[in-house]
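Students often ask what a holo structure prediction actually looks like on paper. The answer is less mysterious than it sounds. You provide the chain, you provide the ligand, and the output is a string of discrete structure tokens encoding the 3D arrangement of the protein together with FE2/S2 (inorganic) cluster.
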Amino acid sequence: MMKKVVCHVRDIEPGEIKETKLEKKSIIVCRTLDGEFYAFLNRCIHQGAPLSKGMLCGTSAETDRLGDYQYVKEGEVLRCPWHGREFDVKNKGCMLAHSKFKLKNYKVEVENEEVVIYK
Ligand code: FES
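The corresponding structure tokens follow.
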């Protein structure tokens, strides 16, 4: 299994996205607000937008009351910069609207305060 040290944990603040390379592929590492790390191919499954130009945010979800929405998953939703499709970072990059579609994801570990990705 190939691995790469991306950076020190303090180099990615919660809510940030960092771009890196792994075997010539552009990869993004996302850090959610609870401090966890997740890594994905830096390419949207729709039309290939660079997700590193997107944002980590939340999304709106309907409540039990008709027409009522609430903001959920703050810092856990990766929003594509081109057409706004949303991917659930904590659920392997599944698209929120159609969970059968998902981003290519990579294993991430923190080893000795360094963020490491695996292929
Ligand atoms: S390229 Fe990402 S939503 Fe279209």
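The chain has one domain: 3-118.
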